[in-house]
Amino acid sequence: MNASLFPRIVAWAVACFLALPVLIMLPISLTPNRYLSLPKDGISLRHYKSLIDDPQWIASIADSLFVATLAAMLAVVLGASFAIGIWRRGGMAERVLQPIMLAPMIVPPIVHSVAFYKGWAEIGLLDTYTGLILVHAMKGTPFVILTVAAALANFDPRTEQAARSLGASAGRTMAWVVLPQIKGGLLSGAVFAFFISWDEIIVALFITMRQVYTLPRRIWDGLEDNIDPAIAALGSLMILATVALMILQTIKKR
Amino acid sequence: MTAVAPKTASGAGRTDRFYLLMIVLPCAFLALLYFLPVLNVLVLSVTEPQPGIQNYQMLAESGALHRILLNTLRVSLSTTALTLLLGYMFSLGINSMAPRTRTVALFVVLASFWISALIRAYAWVAILQPNGLINQLLMGIGLIDTPLILVRNELGVIIGMVHYMLPYAILPIYANMAGIDRSLLRASRALGANRWRTFWWVFFPQSLPGLAGSGILVMIFSLGFYITPAILGGGRVVMIAEYISIQISETLRWGVATMLATVLVMVVVALTIWMSRYLKVGGGLASKGGKS
């Protein structure tokens, strides 16, 4: 027992370290002061109010939601199509192409940010929704490939062959047999892709200016000027939403 | 039957084309809109400002570059070592917990994984800055008189990076540990080895693939990390990614920037190939998405 006590103590210490920034966010967001501090005498919701009152925050949230939703949809189409294709054909395509298609996940963001900065300037996509959505979709695609491939690994290919030999067309088989079986993988892929876009900052710093102004971009610029407690209010809301979604999913799994 | 047979044969041909198209279209999409721009910019490293390898010669000659590369290497190695140590201890600890408590501990890890890197870096600034939480606490209880410098230096960067990387390290290490056959440990104990010998000679060697895989993964992310070093380093701990960004947006030295980008990509690709011996690339992600 003693031998395993030490790692368990360390484990809880690590858990506290991981939770610390999350736990600190809520009190900071309730400070009545104009600057970043812990509330000493009384709490205030002024920073939450400034989030709602400031149309710029709302506009950025809308921008982020719009970009992330479309990027996630495109990523699911690209990623699922590829994953199903190689699942069905296997062999060379799987061994050679899959690692290549995962590149947007592995290549350091700074490298492709510079690439898109130059590339999008050449074709006039700088600071456009289309430009950002395309990049975010490609960044999300590897995650969809992985989640869909994982879902397909549990799915017997003979089911698909059975549907085909009973006379269903390829499209019908896809819609009625394959896709319903991998719903879970598609959904987690979509969640991943949405989150990747929602949280993405480095590419946004390079290829957007004023027309498209996503939430991470606004937070980043807020950090540059002075550290505004409104960001803590926003951070708290984002943390609460994340934890609520996670709890919801844990309960659903049971 | 005979009437059906040719129909299925041609149907199979169509199906093959259908699935082929499903592979080819996404590949073409990425080739055109991802790989082409990336290669296009990497080529600049041998054409800007004039054709030749002068940008790469700077790697050997420029003192400023040496400092940036050393910063990057030192911070990445410290981050990797600390992350692995903490991640391994954490995994050992939850491995011996009751299932219910283990779920709580893993929930904290996953929650941390899903929370924005930007928000987390912001929180660390609030905690570590001179009039931040830690300094207020230490001065409040009279342990120190002047605030400790915990941020806008390498220490702050490493704290933030370890915090970001821990979930990425813990999930593969723990997955690997959970797969180790317990009966081997019991056999070792039954044959007379004490706890420590059993851990060191039976358990530890089997947990090495998870440790190696996570280590390389953390190294890959650390080398190209931008947000956390930029925010917590406050311009004083410039790593390769931030340096590239400065070359592009301020000094407009595209040749040097793309040379460094090329070097970074080559190192990362080499590390990824090495890592694939221990971990399936992105293998943990699918389960992370499924279980979270």
CATH homologous group name of chain A: MetI-like
Q: How many structural domains in the coordinates of chain B?
A: 2
Helix content of chain A: over 70%
Distance between the first and last residues' Cα of chain A = 31 Å
**Uncertain spans of chain A:** none
Tally of helical segments of chain B: 13
Give the structural class of chain A: mainly alpha
Poorly predicted tracts of residues of chain B: 1-9, 286-292
CATH class of chain A: Mainly Alpha
Series of H and E elements of chain B: HHHHHHHHHHHHH
Mean pLDDT of chain A, as a whole number? 90
CATH topology of chain A: MetI-like fold
Largest β-sheet summary of chain A? none
The Cα radius of gyration of chain A reads: 22 Å
What is the molecular shape of chain B?
A: globular
Describe, in short, the structure shown.
The complex is a heterodimer of chains A (254) and B (292). With 254 residues, chain A is mainly alpha-helical. Chain A contains 13 helices and no strands.
Please, could you describe this protein's structure?
- The complex is a heterodimer of chains A (254) and B (292).
- Chain A is an all-alpha fold.
- Chain A has one domain: MetI-like fold (Orthogonal Bundle), CATH 1.10.3720.10.
- Helix content of chain A is 81%, strand content 0%.
- Chain A is built from 13 helices and no strands.
- In chain A, α7 (129-153) runs antiparallel to α10.
- The longest helix of chain A has 35 residues, at 55-89.
- Chain A is globular, with a radius of gyration of 22 Å.
- The model of chain A has no long low-confidence stretch (mean pLDDT 90).
- With 292 residues, chain B is mainly α.
- Helix content of chain B is 78%, strand content 0%.
- In chain B, α5 (117-128) packs parallel to α10 and α8 runs antiparallel to α9 (195-223).
- Chain B is globular, with a radius of gyration of 25 Å.
